Amino acid sequence: MPIARGVAITLAVAVLGGDAAQAQQPDRFAERMFDRIDADHDGVLTRAEAQAARGRMFDRLDADHDGALTTAEAETARNQARAAGRLAHRAGMPAPGERLAALDRNRDGLVSRDEFVAGSGWFDRLDTTGRGVTKAQFAALLNQAR
């Protein structure tokens, strides 16, 4: 699984909620994740909605609220999600440090809020028309990542 997809799915499950059993039900999981991101509930995700969701996710992951994510914070979030039954262990899933390194554009060893929010390349891949991302497109992306 490409690192960017792994980051999106793992962190979304860990931070936005859901549970491991639900994550194994691709259609229901994708629908629930889409509905949480689609702030105006119009059935289309805009870039602004995707970025706002990433911002909320960053705020929850940044445990010490210093404006930067560390590997330790990502590992803590992953472990808490696993302990709460919201995240199952997946073979081949990159470690949190590896996933964060993929988002660390300036290579300073930390992921800033801006770097994290900008790490939504999935949106650009799906929004080929400039009109946003539909629930079906979003579900197809998550299903490919499984």
Number of continuous helical runs: 9
Model regions low in confidence, pLDDT < 50 over at least 5 residues: 13-23
Can you tell me the CATH architecture? Orthogonal Bundle
- Note the gap between the termini: 8 Å
Q: Decide which structural class fits the backbone.
A: mainly alpha
Strand arrangement, major sheet: 1-4
Q: Taking Cα atoms only, what radius of gyration do you get, to the nearest Å?
A: 14 Å
The name of the CATH topology is: Recoverin, domain 1
Overall domain count:
1
* Average of the residue pLDDT scores: 80
According to CATH, what is the class? Mainly Alpha
Q: Give the biggest beta sheet.
A: 2 strands, antiparallel
Describe the global form.
globular
How many β-strand runs? 4
Description of the structure:
This protein has 146 residues and is mainly alpha-helical. The protein has one domain: Recoverin, domain 1 (Orthogonal Bundle), CATH 1.10.238. It is built from nine helices and four strands. The chain has helices at 3-16, 20-23, 26-37, 47-61, 71-83, 96-103, 113-118, 121-126, 135-145, and strands at 44-45, 68-69, 111-112, 133-134. The strands form two sheets. A two-stranded antiparallel ribbon has the order 1-4. Strands 2-3 form a two-stranded antiparallel sheet. Helix 1 crosses helix 6 (96-103) and helix 3 crosses helix 9. The protein is globular, with a radius of gyration of 14 Å. It starts with a helix and ends with a helix.
